[in-house]
Specification:
The structure holds 2 protein chains of 2 kinds. By secondary structure, chain A is mostly helical. Chain A has helices at residues 2-33, 40-58, 66-88, 93-115, 140-162, 164-174, 176-181, 186-208, 218-232, 238-258, 264-278, and strands spanning 130-133, 136-139. Chain B is built from 15 helices and 2 strands. By secondary structure, chain B is mostly helical. Chain B has a two-stranded antiparallel sheet with strand order 1-2. Classes of the chains: A mainly alpha, B mainly alpha.
Chain lengths: 289, 328
């Protein structure tokens, strides 16, 4: 019994690392640009397909394709910020919510048209490898994904705290007007924020590819997880999002283990609704926006 | 009712005359089917718009009420033999009751997180109907027993009858919207939509107003659920709680003109016509085409004319007729 429990916790923790990459992206965009990116999951999907095509066309290992998916999605993020999101900043809720929602619909359905709904998988030499540690079963692909996800999260934290641009970003997040008075160019900061957030989503996609199938709707699971984690971890808080994501992974895994294989999503939604019911004021002081 | 302008009245009369005679003139069952879809989604859009448009509570979970309406009337019909006409009202009542806890939960949040919470509640409802098989047929769903021509059981041999029901529903929803627009409730809604804190500061009881409009919106949306199930003779969680219905309800309002009486109707005509043309052009085999086009239209509207097609039309009209300076 204890072994099953420990195994479920480990499984959840490993996938929670991927959730963390997506959540940190969502919370970074929310913190800096004050926009909820409904399309974040679709960028994970794009990251997965980039890795899939590099693997099947050129034989590139999905993990190595991080070096392609991350820069590509960084550029996509800058483009999305500059040509789309910038135009609705300062507007009311409707354009802000429905612009990224429309982007999500667009990317998902274009993928559906061009790539069909088929599941695509990449099989690497480590996809089926696993080792035993203290009686626990640890799949290599998931462990690599977890370790790299944590490393990337740490790098982002370092960037935000130890570089001028990172500090400028945090300053813009805290108070945009004062940051502007200090000579920070908000447009540039917002572009970098979107770029970094989407690069993280791309990384999540590449890291998933060795053990998770790519399909057009794949992002929806991850973005829902991310929304819940971001709410739980207090909006705009990166460490909060990270810890909440790991908890979500564990909760989902326990749900699958003890309630039923298809109950993962129910657990997630119930956690979201429970959070809303129990501590709505904890969600950014009652004004979750 | 306040006196309408002569031209407006004549136009409205002409429109009603055309709509009433349409099924007599149009015999193609395909064309009638499209008209019914347009009327039904206009109706859902108008219901969504009451809350999403005027009070700017941007729900993406209205399918929860659509599904509850559909399941209530179907359960009553199959298990107890009760006519869907009564089931339609019962479904509305169930939806109103359900809107209380859902609203209690979701209205604690504002902006995008309200939207996410509404998505989550609708998904939870769908998962419940999927999971509990002995309660309502589970994932397989069920067909509605075909009784031939049975008007008392909301079953008709001619599609024209369904057309008139949908037209009647839309007329009711438009009349309700028209009345609310000119009532205190309407002004409260607009005030909340503009700035909730400011509205509360001048004495608007925002939680109560939001709860009330959510109930009205839920009741109407549930009626559409019953109608649709009766029209297609089939129900399952994937159809009754389909996320795309939530999307379309919001989309038609935004594209047509959010927070306006006719906006959802105009939006539906544009979106449904586009989607039909695309389908006959490309064939329905290509998945994703319809929503790709919808999302492109939505983005265009948001980026260039957030007031929707109504806004574009009003500007053009003012430029043409009154030659008044137009605000951008």
């Amino acid at each position: 019994m204890l072994e099953i429990l420990a195994q479920a916790v480990v499984n959840g923790l490993l996938i929670g690392g991927i959730y963390a990459l997506v959540s940190i992206g969502v919370t970074l965009i929310f913190g800096v640009v004050k926009i909820v990116n409904f399309a974040q999951g679709e960028f994970v999907m794009i990251g997965m397909y980039i890795s899939f095509f590099l693997a099947t066309q050129f034989g590139v290992d999905p993990i190595l394709s991080l070096f392609v998916s991350m820069p590509v999605l960084f550029v996509v993020g800058v483009v999305v910020q500059h040509f789309l999101i910038r135009r609705v900043l300062g507007a009311n809720d409707m354009p802000q919510i429905f612009l990224t929602f429309a982007l999500s619909l667009l990317l998902l359905n274009v993928a559906l048209m061009l790539l069909t709904a088929n599941y695509r998988t990449v099989h690497t030499w480590y996809s089926d490898e696993a080792f035993h540690f203290l009686g626990l079963y640890i799949p290599v692909a998931k462990l690599i994904a977890f370790v790299l996800a944590m490393a990337l999260s740490a790098l982002l934290w370092l960037f935000l705290h130890a570089t001028d641009l990172g500090r400028a970003m945090r300053a813009a997040a805290q108070n945009r007007d004062v940051a502007m008075l200090m000579g920070i160019n908000p447009d540039r900061v917002f572009c970098v924020a979107l770029g970094l957030a989407l690069a993280l989503a791309g990384a999540a996609g590449s890291l998933l590819m060795p053990f998770y199938p790519a399909y057009p709707m794949v992002g929806q699971v991850f973005v829902l997880m991310a929304f819940v984690a971001v709410v739980l971890g207090t909006l705009g808080n990166i460490i909060g999002a990270l810890i909440a994501s790991l908890m979500m992974g564990i909760a989902e895994s326990l749900g699958i283990q003890f309630i039923g294989a298809d109950s993962g999503l129910i657990v997630v939604f119930l956690m979201l609704l429970l959070t809303l019911a129990v501590r709505p004021s904890g969600l950014a002081g009652g004004r979750a926006r | 009712m306040r006196a309408l302008g002569g031209w407006t009245r004549a136009l409205l009369g002409l429109l009603v005359a055309i709509l009433l005679t349409l099924p007599v003139v149009v015999k193609s069952s395909f064309a009638i089917d499209i008209c019914i879809r347009i009327l039904m989604f206009s109706f859902i859009g108008v219901a969504w718009n009451l809350m999403g448009g005027y009070a700017k509570q941007l729900s993406l979970g209205h399918v929860a009420f659509f599904g509850l309406g559909a399941y209530t009337s179907t359960l009553l019909q199959i298990d107890a033999g009760i006519s869907p006409w009564i089931g339609m009202l019962a479904g509305g009542v169930v939806a109103v009751i359900a809107s209380l806890p859902i609203g209690w939960l979701c209205f604690r949040l504002r902006g995008p997180y309200f939207t996410i919470a509404t998505i989550a509640t609708a998904q939870v409802l769908m998962l419940i109907f999927l999971k509990f098989r002995d309660f309502a047929w589970g994932a397989e769903g069920t067909t509605i027993p075909n009784l031939g021509n049975a008007p008392l059981m909301m079953q008709f041999e001619s599609k024209a009858a369904y057309y008139y029901i949908a037209l009647g529903l839309l007329a009711i929803a438009l009349a309700i919207t028209y009345r609310i627009e000119r009532s205190w409730l309407g002004y409260y809604l607009v005030a909340i939509g503009e700035d909730e804190d400011a509205a509360e500061a001048i004495g608007v009881n925002a939680p109560r107003v939001k709860r009330d409009i959510y109930m009205i919106s839920a009741f109407l949306t549930a009626m559409a659920g019953t109608f649709y199930t009766q029209y297609i003779y089939f129900i399952d969680p994937a159809t009754a709680f389909n996320f795309s219905i939530s999307i379309e309800a919001a989309l038609v309002s935004i594209v047509g003109g959010i927070g306006t009486l006719w906006g959802p109707v105009i939006g539906t005509v544009l979106l449904e016509t586009t989607s039909t043309l695309l389908q006959s052009w490309l064939g329905s085999s290509t998945g994703g085409v319809q929503l790709t086009v919808y999302s492109l239209i939505l983005m265009t509207v948001i980026l260039w004319r957030p007031t929707g097609l109504i806004g574009v039309a009003t500007e053009a009209y003012q430029r043409l007729v009154r030659r008044k300076p137009v605000q951008a």
